[in-house]
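Could you help me review a protein record that somebody else here produced? Here is the record exactly as it was handed to me:
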Amino acid sequence: MGLLAALLAAWMGFASAALAQGTGKTELLWLGQAGFRIKTPGGKIIVIDPWLSGGPKTPAPYKTDFSALGKIDVLLVTHGHVDHLGDAPALAKLNNTVLYGPADMITPLITLGLIPANLSHRFNKTGHVKPAPGIKVTAVAAEHSSLIVHTNPATGKLESHPAGEAVGYIIEMENGFKIWHMGDTGLFGDMKFISERYKPDLVLMPIGGNFTMDPEDALEAARFIGCDKIVGVHFNTWPPIAIDQEAARTLFSNAGKHLHLPSPGAELSL
C-alpha cells in the first residue's frame, strides 16, 4: 500500500508539473493595430497594447465588452501613445491585474491618477519580469517615441506628458515558445542582436510605415532576425499607415520570406 501511495504521489507530481508547463498550443487573437490577446499553453491570458474602445478596427465584442477577453493574467504596454496604451488602465482595474510597462510611462500614469501604484510595475530595456508562473517577459529596444495625452479634469484641456522610451517585448511561454512583439519601431541594427540573443519563434512586426517600418524596411528586418514566422501589424488602420497587402506579401515571397497579414479578430494557433 505504501508503494502504491508513493507511485500515485509521483504521478500526481508529474501531472502537476506538466500542467504548469502547458501541453496546449499558443493561441493569438489580433485586436487591431498592435493589440493582441495571447492564450498560453498553460491557459493564461496575456494582453498587449489594448486599444479597444477607441480602435476603429477593434473586433466585436471586445470594443464594448472588455470582459470578453477573459480574466487577464498578464497586461503589457509597449509605450504611451493612445493606440497602444488605450484601455490598459481600465483593464488593470477591471481585472485587478498589474500593468507592466516602461518605467517612465508607468510613473506618469500613477502621478496622474490613471492607475494605482499597486497595479503597476516599472521596468525597462533588458529588464525582465516573471509576471505569472512559467511566463517570462523581457523588455527590448524599439526605435520610437512615447507620449501620454491626458485630459486634465480640472481644466478640461488636453495635456501632453513625456512617457519615456518605447520598448518591445520577448514573451516566453511555459513551454519555452517565444514571441517578439516589436511594439512600434523603425529599422535598427540591433534587431539582429536581439534575435541572436533571445531566438524568437514568432515575430509581431509593425509594417504600415509613416510611424514605423514600411514593408521594405520590414523585409530588411526579417533578413536581420532570421525568423520564418512573421506577422505584420500596425497597418491599414487609417490612411497614413495604409499598405497594399498583396504587394507586401509578394515582396516578402520574392525574397524567400513568408509574411502573414491577418484581419482584425483573426486567430492564430501555434
